[in-house]
Amino acid sequence: MEAVAPGPVAAQLQAILDQDPAADRIALVWHEPLIPSELDHQLGAIAMRLVWCPSQLAMREQLVEQQLMEHQGGSRRLVLLSPFNASQMAKDLLARLWANEPRHISPWRTLQQLLRVAQIDPRLTGKGYRWIAETLLDCHDRYRSRIRFGEVLDFDQAWRALAIGLLDYQEPAVDLESLLNWSLQAGAAERAAAAPEPVVEHLNGWLGPRLGETAALIQLLWRQGHAGALVSIGLACDLLYDPEQRLDQAIFQARGAFRERYLGGAAIGEEVLAGFGQRARDSIRRQLSQGERSRLAGALGQAEQALASLDAMALVARSDLLIGAFEQRLNGFAEALAQALKGKRDKTAELGAALEALRRHQLAEVRKDQVGAAELAVRLCGWLTRVSLESKGVTELIRGFVADGGFVDWARSRIWAGDEHEAVSQAYGLLLKKVTERREGMNQRLGAQLDAIARGDRLGAGIWPVEQALDGVIAPLAKQHPLLLLVLDGMSQAVYRELADDLLRRHWVELQRSDAEGPECLIAALPSITRISRYALLAGKLGEGGSGDEKKAFSGHSGLRGVCSTKFPPRLFHKADLQQEGSGALSSNVRELIAGSEHRVIGAVINAIDDQLSSNAQLAIRWGVESISLLRHILEAARESGRMVILTSDHGHVLDHDMKYRKSSGDAERFRSADEKPSADEVLVEGERVVLPGQRVLLPWSERVRYGKQKMGYHGGASLQELAIPFGVFRNAGETEVIDGWQEAPRQEPSWWRLQKEVETPESKPAPTVIPPSKPSSGKKAKQEGQMGDLFEQPPAAPSAEAEPQDWIEALLNSPVYAEMKARAGRVTIREEQLRQLLQLLQAGGGQQMPAAIAEQLNLPAIRANGFLAGAQKVLNVDGYAVLTIDRASRTVRLNIESLKTQFEID
Fold first, then answer.
1. 642: which residues sit within 8 A by CB, 6+ positions away?
2. pTM
3. pLDDT for 211-230, tens place per residue?
4. If pLDDT is split at 50, 70 and 90, which confidence band does 689 have?
5. Strand, coil or helix: 843
6. What is the DSSP string of 672-720?
7. Is the previous residue joined to 776 through a cis bond, with omega within 30 degrees of 0?
8. Among 15, 485, 814, 881, which is disulfide-ready with 603 (CB 3.0 to 4.6 Å)?
9. Largest CA-CA distance found in the chain, in angstroms, rounded
10. Using CA of residue 840, residue 846, residue 847, residue 849, what is the dihedral sign?
11. Cα separation of 683 and 82, whole Å?
12. Given strand 38-43, what is the order of strands in its sheet?
């Protein structure tokens, strides 16, 4: 190892050169010999020769040698180190030295010169702190460019410089969170271990004013060699000394082992350890929220190791941060799900708590798919509890499937692949078995009544045979507004629910008939295959044909031509027409037509779903606008022209989830000739809607049968999944034109699907959602069906006996002030009945409600809620008084009823 100049010597030389850059033949008072006695030293561009001189004769010899070197062209400057001060040296020797005297190395004086400060804090210059000056001189090169000193070197600056120089402390502040963050740096433990003993001894004096009682704990951990493990020890403390946990013998033993192992048996108060743990936990939470997950992984693992060494792994499950806790919570969730499926007693609360524990853990953000699957599993449990086992008619079966079935199949298609956690995967297997049995039972009931569909019997409002869609729905809508008919070949209710969810996020709004009993649907022609059912949809009549036949029939349909000009008849585009040649983009010609206003009715057939089903790749597809080629471009073109979009299909499909192959005489995948003998899971149907010779066909009602080679999915059979075709009407949220007989609808989802728990804030707790009097409660019916409500929703509170009468609402609506405010508001599109319902809902909630609850009760799309409330504020906030306010932070709408009465002059 190359010899280097002692730190104080190097610092003193730097100070001298700062004072006089030409200084040469420098003498320093230094009592310890150099080893070796001569060495080279470089200060910037200046080379120096340091020589230890035990006598004045040796000093004279070096001065002579220096002169000879300079004559020979040498450039190194001479530095003489000796034990002699000025009073001990001969005058001839002093005359030949820089400044005519040797310089004493005073640590504080040298430091003052180096740092160019006018003064040094008197607290530092006492005898007990000489080590600070010496240490600061030793590590001067490591902090000098990273800290700016003022006129005075004070106590805090000195410690700050020590922290930078010795510990590479780069944090902007000196507090517990910053210290925890520093301890996570690579090499922090090694630097702490190498710090001089006086630094550790006086650490409490520096940290005490900033950390309080925690400073002594930090100093103790430092002495025990744990300075680089502050975070992991803090997380262990958070669990060991949690004041809310139940104390038992195991906890006491773990605490005792912790004190011995990490604190050397020192007496540190439990409240200090608990506080330290809480601060460590909060610090990690903040860093995780800022994306610092990778740098924290080691500390989280060390915390688990520490708890394991203390025989306290049982505590890990309580942590929202430790990786082992997530695994334990997965075990708990799997157990809760298995218990809920046994059905011996209601396990809703336990299952909900297990899911919430998973969602609360920091790994939920990383393992979103895993937690999302758990949420879907809980939803399916809700559906199992809700669906009645009673026999149902064909109309009721179809309505129930359209309302719920898409969500059920969406969920089970996600969890069918299982989970990497073995126990959870096994629980999913049990769940899928029950769900599939329930679905098979529903399909079997439908199969027994399939003749009604084959005959074309009227099934009720909103359930349209596919061949009647053009005349019954599409042409009447096109008469009011230009539209785009998007046919996604093979789209099931499950895929539709995913796509519709994505459309709503992209600021499309769903429309529904004003008198609708629920979501509408189409019923496929039989068998439910493309060349039959898609032709029926696009031709408006039963038949069979390919894309060319569909185009001809669509453009010639009398109902559609009746709403279009003769110059711009209905247009239909298929796969080959939609894509720009040589790229995957939408054809510029098609885009221009959709974005234009000349053609009132345009249709487009997209085969992405059916193409995917034809593959043998068993993939879990996330269906959305981005996952279907061209769909985003088509929708944007429709948005540009303000077209309504009808999203539908020609049939649904069943996925190959352990389907069984059955030999057939034909080549069809999901139907057989009527001449063959039916099995127990098949039904022979006949009627005018069977588009085959003889109008008879043998169809499987079960989703478990296939007659063709293995693929991802199939269609042609008689299951609800294949026959009930999704049908949705959407428009851009920027469009507000009134469509006669139709209204904007909130997101249509069953109650058991909702899991999102509203966040309560200290300032405001959400009031229970109360259905306004104008909408009678369906609670009795739900109770009869055994409906399981939202797992996490608080039940509505019973109305108070002292609730204020609603006479003030009618008085307000009849008041002159209201009439004036309504006139001032101008084109605010708030119907009086809506305002009445809003006031009733707010009064029922004690003057406050959540915007989501308001949107749901007033039957508004979520995207319209803010606009509606802003309009209500224009009417109610007289002269700017805060009668109706919206707290965005707590997501709460508040009504000050007393202020309202004053402003509207109501007694």
1. 482, 731, 732, 734, 735
2. 0.74
3. 888 999 999 999 899 999 99
4. very high
5. helix
6. B-TTSPP-TTEEEEESTTB-SGGGEEEEE-STTEESS---SEE-SS-SH
7. no
8. 485
9. 133
10. negative
11. 112
12. 38-43, 46-52, 77-82, 26-29, 103-104
